[in-house]
Amino acid sequence: MTTTTFAAAHIAGEARAGSAERVHAAVDPSTGQTIAEVPIADASMVHAAVVSAQSAFDNWADTTPVERDTMLNALADRLIDHQQELGDLEARNTGKPRGVAFDEVAGAAEQLRFFGGAARVLEGKAAREYVAGRTSFIRRDPVGVIGQITPWNYPLVMAAWKIGPALAAGNTIVLKPSELTPLSTLRLAELTADILPPGVLNVVAGDGSTGAALSGHPGIDMVCVTGSVGTGQHVLRAAAERVKRTHLELGGKAPVMVFPDADFARLAETLKVASFWNSGQDCTAACRLLVQDNAYDDLMAALVPAVASLRVGGPFEADAMDMGPVISAAQRDRVTGFIDRASSAGADIVIGGSATGPAGYFVEPTIIGNVGADAEIVRSEVFGPVITVQRFSDEQEALSMANGVDYGLSASVWTENLGRSLRLARKLQFGAVWLNDHLTVADEMPHGGYKMSGYGKDLSTYAIEDYTVVKHVMARID
Ligand code: NAD
Asked: What percent of the chain has pLDDT over 70?
């Protein structure tokens, strides 16, 4: 892989080379080796992409739902035709196990297919005479040109979550992937250039400066970001100037509420995945265990051996690994910094706790006990393979601990008591609540947060609605 492989942007279906002076290295996190250098698109390139999306808008908005469905399915087919290539590219750029990256390509394709079909079944209020002599009806019109900014944890899947609903609703797009993991999205743009009309989907590579140029551009009608709270706040400030619509999928700090009647074997098996999938770099990761005092020993007896059994290694190792590295040296140091400060403050490192591996950015799967509700590691998003365990005495205390953080993306409750689980599902301030499960996502169901985890939904028909403007049309009929 060389610098010439990747463009700075794909605009109106054509690759655009950027300046050789401003590049960002794409690194294989399992080795620390640079695998490509991708130019950073500057403000003039962002402008060209926005103009391209503006010129494509009217014709794209005029396509019928079935035409958009057909094209979204063609995009999905193209991903599947290149599943191995895209999966390998993703595995190399993120460090996740090769088989997982391969499956993610299939997931992204399936999500595009869902949104294609969903474009054809948007629902609305009945047209009716709400005022005598006048017929009212609702239109759901596309918003216009959408600026979309994606993170590094699931690069291709996050692109599909953004592209699918926006195109299904009749919008055109300028999408910016993370500077750490731009390769699969740039390749997606290249592979699909002959499917969509020129300008409908434009991709610009770059860092926060490119994202800022995009969110502040006056030709962008709506800005959508999946990323950290800080980035969401930057985007909100940029959007305020022209009162742009925003759609924010930000961080999480998911509580896992464990009661003594939980199925501990199932819980431990679930957490091996839910806490450590993608090396814990998942906004819904089960990272904050809350356990009733008298269930603490049962939980640990099941959990510690399960976590100890996780296999950590690079994406292309002969045996399939459960977990790869974290994304960068900075992220490794950030994660181990949280662990070290927790340890210095008196927390117990039950298992793991250190960086590991001869090369690359690996962190051991880690369980931390004896932490208080105010501890930094309990309140901040670590975004690594780390779980904390806290004790509670009763349901009310558990609820206030669960809700007592700034985030509100997802939570789970583990009990056989149906009344308790439904009571808690009602009171938990999180956009997704699992009962005796954690992490499972369905394309048909919405994903999005409460509180500082942001607002707006990815996946489901709610996502398409977010990419539309509701318009009331009233006609005199008397
Ligand atoms: P990040 O905020 O550092 O970067 C996200 C994207 O924003 C990148 O493309 C980046 O280049 C861009 N960006 C950075 N500064 C910007 C600015 N000033 N203006 C516009 N764009 C800017 O996030 P990350 O480190 O890539 O991803 C991890 C974060 O994403 C975590 O907080 C995680 O919880 C969150 N996340 C949330 C969800 C969700 O659905 N809620 C899903 C995945 C990740």
From this structure: 99
CA of 238, closest atom in ligand 1: 19
Mean pLDDT of 345-370: 97
Helix or strand run (H / E) with residue 399: helix 395-403
Kindly report the CATH number that applies to the domain delimited by 4-250+453-473.
3.40.605.10
Distances (CA, A) of 372 to 50, 376, 428: 48, 9, 20
For the segment 431-460, the average pLDDT, to the nearest whole number, is: 98
d(CA 160, CA 214): 19
Q: Does 21 participate in catalysis according to the annotation?
A: no
Is this prediction's pTM over 0.85? yes
Among 121-130, 268-277, 332-341, 378-387, name the one with the lowest average pLDDT. Answer: 121-130
Task: Say how far apart CA 161 and CA 476 lie, in whole Å.
Answer: 41
Ligand 1: nearest atom to the Cα of 249:
41
* Residue 211 and residue 231 in contact, taking contact as beta carbons nearer than 8 Å: yes
Find all residues with CB under 8 Å of 214, minimum gap 6, and list them. Answer: 46, 50, 147, 149, 174, 176, 204, 220, 223
280 CB near ligand 1 (under 6 Å): no
Every domain of the chain and the residues it spans: 4-250+453-473, 254-442
Here the tokens at position 228 are: 């950290």
* Domain 254-442: CATH architecture, name and number where available: 3-Layer(aba) Sandwich (3.40)
